Amino acid sequence: MSRAQLALNVDSLDEAVAFYAKLFNTSPAKVKPGYASFAVAQPPLKLVLIENAGRGGTLNHLGVEVESSDAVHAEIARLNAEGMFTEQQIGTTCCFATQDKVWVTGPAGEKWEVYTVLADSDTFGTNSEVLAAEPPSGCACDSCDSCDSCDTSESAPDATSCC
């Protein structure tokens, strides 16, 4: 099963979790410091909330969650064949999960990932400090130096879309 992912920046994680739990009539699947995700059955949606003070209500990134690493690798091959530059992240830790993923950038600069979750993680990103006590500012993982998916190159997610 594949499902679309929508990752939103929110000013207050608690307020956003309460709102989206009511809107989609479901509890979050995962809540961590500065982060929450919902696995919404209808419509099939992975909703990710990233506490990012001052940027609430803005898009963080988009994605498609797929069922396996094989599906991610198939998308890497397909996107390369289409001439779309991709950034691959195999076995990366991001958004409190170990994942295989590929990133592409849409024509208006929107960031898309195709990914699968391999396992849960206690950390937001590789070498992260689990968002510390303060909500992050700028980068979703608090410091772009500590999130292996933060890269300021043209093709990678921007500094505010670390997962």
Report on the architecture of this protein.
This protein has 163 residues and is of the alpha+beta class. It has a domain at 3-61: 2,3-Dihydroxybiphenyl 1,2-Dioxygenase, domain 1, CATH 3.10.180.10. The chain has two helices and eight strands; from the N terminus they run E-H-E-E-E-E-H-E-E-E. It has helices at residues 13-24, 69-81; strands at residues 3-10, 30-32, 35-40, 45-51, 59-65, 87-94, 97-105, 111-120. The protein has an eight-stranded mixed beta sheet, with helices on one face. Strand 3 (35-40) and strand 4 (45-51) form a beta hairpin. Residues 127-162 have low confidence and may be disordered.
Mean pLDDT: 78
- CATH architecture descriptor name of one domain: Roll
Output the strand order for the largest sheet. 2-3-4-1-5-8-7-6
Gross geometry = globular
Q: Approximately what portion of the residues adopt beta-strand conformation?
A: 35-45%
Low-confidence stretches: 127-162
Helix share, percent? 10-25%
Alpha-beta classification: alpha+beta
| Main sheet makeup | 8 strands, mixed
User: What would you report as the Rg, rounded to the nearest angstrom?
Assistant: 15 Å
The count of helical stretches stands at 2
N-to-C SSE string, H for helix and E for strand: EHEEEEHEEE
Distance between the termini: 21 Å
CATH superfamily of one domain: 2,3-Dihydroxybiphenyl 1,2-Dioxygenase, domain 1
CATH topology of one domain: 2,3-Dihydroxybiphenyl 1,2-Dioxygenase, domain 1
The CATH class of one domain is identified as: Alpha Beta
Number of strands: 8
